[in-house]
Amino acid sequence: MKYYPDRDAAEIVGADPGTTRLVRSYERESGKPKITSSTPTPGITSFSPLGALREYDYVVAIDTNERMIDNKRCGACVSYVVPNSLSAYGKEVPFVPATAYFISELSEHAKSEPIGWHLTISNHLAPSQRVYSGKVAIVTDSELGIHQKINRQEVGYYKNHLLPEWATLAYASDADADTLQSQMLRYCDRLSRKILDFMTTTTLPLDSLTKGDENYGGSIQVDFLREPMQS
To answer: In this predicted structure, what is the pLDDT of residue 18?
Structure first.
C-alpha cells in the first residue's frame, strides 16, 4: 500500500480499478455496522468523503419518494447536480436542482428508485444531453447491496439497462450529515416530498404522461425554480 500525505489518500498497489472504495459507518445498538456512505474509487482512495468524490468530474444525487394518490401508488424523483467540475471548487461546493419526475401508477412489486435513476440517466445525463463531459458519480440511498454488480455492468441498474461506462453509483444516507453527498440527497428528498404534496391537491395529469412500462403507468417531468445550494 502507498500513502500520499499531500492528498491524505492511499493506494492498494495492483488492485483492479473500481474494487477499492471509501466506506463510512457507525456501530448500531445491535452491534452491527450501519454504512452511511460508500464511494468507489478508481485506484487512489482519499480518506475524506469529498476527496473520494473528487476522483470524479461531476456529481449527481438522485432520490425518489412514494405516496398513495387517488388509490394509486405514485412516486416523485428529484436530482441535484454540482453545476461544474469538482476541480473548480474548494471546500465549499454548490449544487443545484437538475430535474424532477412524477411517476404514476407504480405496479405492486416495482421499485421506484431504479425507475427514477433510469428517467434521469436516459433523459438528462447522457453525454449528448449535458454540457459537461467526464466521469459522473451518481449518489443514491438505495440498492447498496448490488452497487458493485451494477458498476461492473454485471446486472442492469433498471431491467436490462446497463450503467453507462462514464457513470458510477455511489451510496450515501442522510445519517452522514456533514458530507456533500448526504446534503444533496436531503434536498432531493425534501423537494420530492413537496412534489407529492402538490400532486395530492391537484388532478393527476394522466393525459400528459409519457407512457411507462410494466412497472409503472407513466411519468411527466416537473418544472420548478432552480436555486443554488451550498455544502
So the answer is: 63
Burial class (CB in 10 A: 0-12, 13-18, 19+), 40: buried
CA distance 14 to 178: 32
| pTM of this structure | 0.88
Cell triple for residue 2? Answer: 502507498
In tens, the pLDDT along 148-168 reads 999 999 999 999 999 999 999
Q: Which of 26, 31, 15, 5 is CA-nearest to residue 175?
A: 26
Question: Could you give the CA distance from residue 93 to residue 91 in angstroms, rounded to a whole number?
Answer: 6
Element (H, E) at 104: strand 94-106
Cell of 179: 458530507
DSSP assignment string, 118-138: HHHIIIIISGGGSS--S-EEE
Tell me how many degrees the CA angle 130-151-131 measures, rounded to the nearest 5: 10
Instruction: Provide the 3-class DSSP secondary structure of residue 190.
Output: helix
2 confidence band (pLDDT: 50, 70, 90): low
